Structure formats: structure tokens, C-alpha cells
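Problem 12. The chain below contains 302 residues. Write out its predicted structure in C-alpha cell notation.
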Amino acid sequence: MASERGLGKGLGALLGDAALQSQEGGSVSLPLAQVEPGLNQPRKHFEEEALADLAESIRQHGMIQPLTVRRLASGYYQIIAGERRWRAAKAAGLDQVPAVIIEGIQGVAGIHCPADDFLRELRTAASETGTQLILDEIQSGYGRTGRFFAHQAAGIRPDLITTAKGMGNGFPIGGVLIAPHFEARPGLLGTTFGGNHLACAAAIAVLDVMERDGLVENAATVGEYLLGELHKIGGLKEVRGRGLMIGIELDGSGSEFRKRLLFEKHIFTGGAGASTVRLLPALCLTRELADRFLNAFKELVR
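Solution.
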């Protein structure tokens, strides 16, 4: 119980107690998956365009981008990909779904940030239809984007938030935050390692250090500097991200560029798809270390 109280107190200190309460509006990002138990067969062109989006997504990124998946009364599933498809489905009255699972910022797909207006619109649509908004902040949460959770940039709140990764700073732990309208009672959640005391102690220590050292604010400041400098570099297809969650789209092989960064400059970076370099540095990254990366990056880009 002490660990649970400490974890809640730590979150309250970083987010403000109101952040742990449900309000009109929640937080959303691009829809990953939605399942509906029964609908009349939708217009055929939605299916055709969805499949076209799937093919294009795989061609460009080597993976499937966020999807809306709908189970039809006929037993078939309809797939609607991305923000444009979501808007089209909503306009056609195909928005009655029980839940939306989303990311604050797409990580593995290459650091794609949903527009704040889109998130607010999706929150409104979900509230109107009673759809539960499930926010996946496993990669984009815990200060990574310069806010405790990425979706907070849009000023919206989810019905449920999943967390992990930065929650234990390397120690295995995951968590879920639920809005008050979900009644938490024994038997709803079964887990083998739930309530592990060592994991909870690690999670509390992470929150203490984040607050003490101002790591969320540092991620915002150094991240803004990094993004600004990267935008000045010529020859890049696109620079995306927020805070210290950055994707750099190259005009060429991202894998080969990352190998050169590693073996020639001794800087390790992540990748996504065929041409994206993914930056997810420690939240304590200094401006001096950011400059070291920028100088090495510019030398190799030239």
C-alpha cells in the first residue's frame, strides 16, 4: 500500500492532481484499432481505399500505419487507415465503436505526431458516442516529449493511459491509469507480477529524480534546441517530433547512416523503416552533448 500511495503522490506532483481525474475531453492520437460488434456492410469504396492505404503504408514504411478495424455484421473486418480514413468514416456515420487505442506520438512507425486539432476532434467524437479513449504512452510518456505525456500538448485527457519503458528507467514495470468512471474492484485485473514491491520502489525513485532534476523541462528545452538546429540542416527529407522524441527522414538508407554514426562517431541511434533515424536520448541530455551529436551528424550528411 505504501508503494501505491507513493506512486500516486509522485504522479500528482509531476502532473498536478487534476491530471489523475476525468474531465470532459480526453487525450487521443491517431487510431490504432477499433472493433465494432455489428454494422451494416459499409460502402465498398471504403474497403478499397483502406487496402490501398495499407499497401502504400507498407511500401513507404515497411509496416502498417495506424488503422481503424471494424467487425461487420457479415463477419468481415473493415480496415480504415490513418487520419484521413478516420475522418471519412466519421462523415459516413461509421464512428460507433467501443474503444480507440492510440499513441501520443507514433514511435516505431518513425516518429509521427498527430495534429493537436485532430486529437481534440477525435476526443469530441469519442465523447459524443461513448467511445473510450485508450492512450498508449508507453514510448512517448514519462517526459519524453517535454511534457509528462505526449497527448497533453493538445490539452485533452484519455479514459485510460498505458505506461512502461521510462516508468522504471530500465527496470521492468508497466502501469495503467484509469478515469474515475471505471470502477476499480477486485477481480477486474489479473496479473502474475502485479504489485511487485521492488518495481514500485524503482518507479517511485524515477518520479523523485524526474521532479528533483527537472527532467521534463530539460527534455522540452534541449529537444526544442535539437529540433531547431536539425531543421537548419540541408539535404534532409523531414524532421519530426517533440522534445527528445525525434525522427529524421533521410534521402537514402537510414541503416547505413546509423552504422556510420556508430562506427565513425561512436553515437548510437535508433531506426524506423527504411530511411528514418530515431532519436530517443536520455532525458538528462545536455546542450553540450546535443551539440556533439549535431556536429557529427552534419559531417556525415555532407
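Discussion. The CA atoms of residues 5 and 204 lie 10 Å apart. Students who got a different answer should revisit the alignment rule from Section 12.3.
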